[in-house]
Amino acid sequence: MKQITKYVIKNSLKRIFLYRACLVRLRMMGVERVFSYTLGNETGVTPDQVRKDFSEFSIKGNKRGGYEIDELLSTMESIFHRNKDHNIVLVGMGNMGQSLSKYSRFVQRNMNIVATFDIDPFKQKMRSDIPVYTMNRLKEIIDRFKVKVAIVAVPEISAQEVTDELIRHGIKGIINFAPVLLKVPPEIVVNNVNLSDELESVIYYVHNLLKADGQKNIEYYTRL
Amino acid sequence: MKQITKYVIKNSLKRIFLYRACLVRLRMMGVERVFSYTLGNETGVTPDQVRKDFSEFSIKGNKRGGYEIDELLSTMESIFHRNKDHNIVLVGMGNMGQSLSKYSRFVQRNMNIVATFDIDPFKQKMRSDIPVYTMNRLKEIIDRFKVKVAIVAVPEISAQEVTDELIRHGIKGIINFAPVLLKVPPEIVVNNVNLSDELESVIYYVHNLLKADGQKNIEYYTRL
DNA sequence: CGTATTTTGTGATTTGTTTCACATCAAAAT
DNA sequence: ATTTTGATGTGAAACAAATCACAAAATACG
Predict the structure, then answer these.
(1) Is the C-beta of residue B173 closer than 7 Å to nucleic acid chain C?
(2) Tens digit of pLDDT for each residue in B84-131?
(3) Domain B11-79 has CATH 2.160.10.10
(4) From CA A211, how far away is CA A203, in angstroms rounded?
(5) Would you tell me the crossing angle of helices B11-28 and B47-56 to the nearest 10 degrees?
(6) CA–CA dist A200, B204 (Å, integer)
(7) Shortest Cα–Cα distance, B116 to chain A (Å)
């Protein structure tokens, strides 16, 4: 039973990511504790919102002493299942795929691309730290590395087909760089990243801001 | 007066992008008109929502006859200022920057990267369709091509510095791939794209969905 | 030509999210 | 030991977004 089910990161979760990035930075600078006020200032979020978000994820602070950063970070790690490593497969070693396969920040966050796949046999001879396989080894790799999440970076035309195959072999979550809406069963999580849309939306905002001439005309965009 | 002002694409605008992508596909398949019901089905949005969104952007259809796709698309083009070309600069020719410089979908949508910049003189000798310059030619290029929007794909550490320089030379909108929150004046539009966060959120959802075991536990994510 | 049908367009209602306001607690000061 | 201070945590209020429901319009059909 295939259908379109797009999940969108909830704003509160997006902000938790934001807080974490900020906390990591503060911690490296030697800071040990933060107040909702500090963290809010640093992330462009109101202190109320910070506390509400923490409340949603049952994160507790000290009534006067604020939040201890180390504690906050380890709570967040467990929220995000960052304790363990996560094995990922990447399908499509074109321009974007190759770049993603080298993207070091995934590794920094314990997300390891264990293998990549491409139909082009030429790509398979490419020198690369991560092996490039044909699609027929997909099942083997997914099983061996207990892979649950895949990156789809194939051309638009083959995205659905690849997705179907991934799901058939046990993939539960997909981040999709192809500009198509994938049809998947409702229990499968899909996160679409469309770089053209992102860039185009900046252009759109710039034009409409310029028209409104400095005056903050918050009509078609909202503040996170 | 620098501050953190993150703009997030409003959901209705995101959906307009979605509709457009879908309409382009339908048009290529020879379809000439759609109903809110059809379009909604195709995009995973309720028909009501489709009509509400169109209403927000003052897009009109024909009572009973639905919407003519060509007309819809041309209305959207003018909403998105797609009539004219848009010149973009890209700063940072590392892994991600190189990939973005070759990203053909930007060109397909009239968004042209006219020049790229990198501090590394070695990168400047790289063979590439788009010229790679040193940062000191930034102003010249921005003025010559009337560039309003920039892509920031530099390492975290230099992102703020680069951003300041871009704004000083007249850039009004930035799409930022560095995982930092840029501090900018309120009239500047920043759109942050954080690929690690996007991937990590998929992992998060997958884990929490699996825990809920098939039952759609829509707690930390929402349907668009 | 008039009636039935289908689909839009939009107020009214519901649902969800953010901001406000203040009780509560912990630490510091007296 | 008591008061003051400064922060959290969370219901209540305000605001925003999505859904509902139905009037209005265009077409089809008898």
Answers:
(1) no
(2) 899 999 999 999 999 999 999 999 999 999 999 999 878 777 777 899
(3) no
(4) 12
(5) 110
(6) 28
(7) 16
Question: Helix, strand or coil for residue A189?
Answer: strand
CA-wise closest residue to A152 among A128, A129, A184: A184
- Amino acid identity of residue A202, one-letter, is V
Indicate if the alpha-carbon torsion angle A15, A18, A20, A26 is positive or negative: negative
Residue B153, classed as helix, strand or coil, is coil
To which H or E segment does residue A86 belong? strand A86-91
Q: Return the residue in B199, B215, B221 with the most chain A beta carbons within 10 A, the one to mutate for interface testing.
A: B199
Burial of B56 (0-12, 13-18, 19+ CB in 10 A): middle
Phi-psi group of B41: left, alpha or beta (phi > 0 → left; psi -120 to 50 → alpha; rest → beta): alpha
Q: Collapsing DSSP states into helix, strand and coil, what is residue A85?
A: coil
Residues 21-50 of A with CB under 7 A from strand C: 45-46, 48-49
Rounded to the nearest angstrom, the gap between the alpha carbon of residue B9 and the centroid of all alpha carbons in its chain is 9
CA at A174, C1' at D23: how many angstroms apart? 44
The domain segmentation of chain A, as residue ranges, is 11-79, 86-193
Residue of B nearest to A7 (CA): B223
The answer to whether the beta carbons of residues B77 and A169 sit under 8 Å apart is no
Q: What is the pLDDT of residue A220?
A: 34
Cα distance between residue B201 and residue B196, in whole Å: 8
Tell me if A170 sits within 8 A of B120, measured CB to CB: no
Burial A190-219 (b: 16+ CB within 10 A, else e): bbbbbbbbbbbbbbbbbbbbeeeeeeeeee
A 116-155 near B (Cβ less than 8 A): 148-149, 151
- The pLDDT tens digits of the residues spanning A40-74 come to 998 989 999 999 999 999 999 999 999 999 999 99
Question: Within 13 Å, how many C-alpha atoms sit on residue A203's CB side?
Answer: 26
State whether residue B202 sits within 8 Å of chain A by CB: yes
Q: In CATH, what number does A86-193 get?
A: 3.40.50.720
The verdict on a CB contact (< 8 Å) between A202 and B191 is yes
Between β-strands A173-176 and A189-192, what pairing exists: parallel, antiparallel or unpaired?
Answer: parallel
Gap from A44 CA to chain B (nearest CA, Å): 5
Is the model's pLDDT at B42 over the cut of 50? yes
